[in-house]
Amino acid sequence: MRxxxxxxxxxxxxxxxxxxxxxxxxxxxxxxxxxxMIVPWAAGxxxxxxxxxxxxxxEKHLGQPVIVVNSSxxxxxxxxxxx
Length: 83
Hints:
Blueprint (H helix, E strand, L loop, with lengths): L3 H18 L1 H4 L8 E5 L6 H17 L3 E5 L13
Protein backbone atom coordinates (compact mmCIF):
# COMPACT_ATOMS: atom_id res chain seq x y z
CA MET A 1 0.00 0.00 0.00
CA ARG A 2 1.52 3.27 -1.11
CA UNK A 3 1.17 6.50 0.81
CA UNK A 4 -0.11 9.80 -0.52
CA UNK A 5 3.42 11.21 -0.68
CA UNK A 6 4.55 8.44 -3.00
CA UNK A 7 1.52 8.97 -5.24
CA UNK A 8 2.20 12.70 -5.45
CA UNK A 9 5.81 12.10 -6.40
CA UNK A 10 4.63 9.65 -9.07
CA UNK A 11 2.26 12.21 -10.55
CA UNK A 12 4.96 14.86 -10.45
CA UNK A 13 7.34 12.59 -12.38
CA UNK A 14 4.65 11.92 -15.00
CA UNK A 15 3.89 15.63 -15.44
CA UNK A 16 7.58 16.54 -15.78
CA UNK A 17 8.06 13.72 -18.30
CA UNK A 18 5.13 14.93 -20.40
CA UNK A 19 6.35 18.52 -20.35
CA UNK A 20 9.83 17.52 -21.48
CA UNK A 21 8.36 15.48 -24.33
CA UNK A 22 6.62 18.59 -25.64
CA UNK A 23 9.20 21.38 -25.40
CA UNK A 24 6.86 23.83 -27.15
CA UNK A 25 4.64 23.82 -24.08
CA UNK A 26 7.45 24.26 -21.60
CA UNK A 27 9.46 26.83 -23.55
CA UNK A 28 6.90 29.61 -23.76
CA UNK A 29 8.14 33.17 -23.42
CA UNK A 30 8.95 34.25 -19.86
CA UNK A 31 6.09 36.66 -19.63
CA UNK A 32 3.86 38.15 -22.24
CA UNK A 33 2.17 40.39 -19.65
CA UNK A 34 3.58 42.91 -17.17
CA UNK A 35 4.96 41.44 -13.95
CA UNK A 36 2.94 42.47 -10.88
CA MET A 37 4.86 42.97 -7.63
CA ILE A 38 2.52 43.03 -4.64
CA VAL A 39 3.72 45.07 -1.65
CA PRO A 40 1.70 44.18 1.48
CA TRP A 41 2.09 47.66 3.01
CA ALA A 42 0.62 51.08 2.27
CA ALA A 43 2.21 53.32 -0.34
CA GLY A 44 4.78 55.91 0.71
CA UNK A 45 6.72 53.90 3.27
CA UNK A 46 10.33 52.77 3.26
CA UNK A 47 9.46 49.30 1.98
CA UNK A 48 7.46 50.78 -0.88
CA UNK A 49 10.32 53.07 -1.92
CA UNK A 50 12.91 50.28 -1.80
CA UNK A 51 10.75 47.87 -3.80
CA UNK A 52 9.99 50.52 -6.43
CA UNK A 53 13.74 50.98 -7.00
CA UNK A 54 14.09 47.21 -7.18
CA UNK A 55 11.18 47.04 -9.66
CA UNK A 56 12.95 49.53 -11.94
CA UNK A 57 16.09 47.40 -12.02
CA UNK A 58 13.97 44.28 -12.60
CA GLU A 59 12.38 45.96 -15.63
CA LYS A 60 15.81 46.54 -17.16
CA HIS A 61 16.92 42.99 -16.38
CA LEU A 62 13.75 41.16 -17.50
CA GLY A 63 12.79 43.38 -20.40
CA GLN A 64 9.18 43.44 -19.13
CA PRO A 65 7.32 46.16 -17.26
CA VAL A 66 7.03 45.59 -13.50
CA ILE A 67 3.97 47.09 -11.81
CA VAL A 68 4.13 47.73 -8.06
CA VAL A 69 0.76 47.22 -6.34
CA ASN A 70 0.38 48.30 -2.72
CA SER A 71 -2.22 46.43 -0.71
CA SER A 72 -2.35 47.06 2.99
CA UNK A 73 -4.15 44.35 4.95
CA UNK A 74 -7.70 45.23 6.02
CA UNK A 75 -7.08 44.00 9.58
CA UNK A 76 -4.02 44.00 11.81
CA UNK A 77 -1.86 40.92 11.39
CA UNK A 78 -1.54 40.36 15.16
CA UNK A 79 -4.48 40.45 17.54
CA UNK A 80 -4.44 43.44 19.83
CA UNK A 81 -5.51 43.45 23.44
CA UNK A 82 -4.40 39.88 24.18
CA UNK A 83 -2.83 39.20 27.56
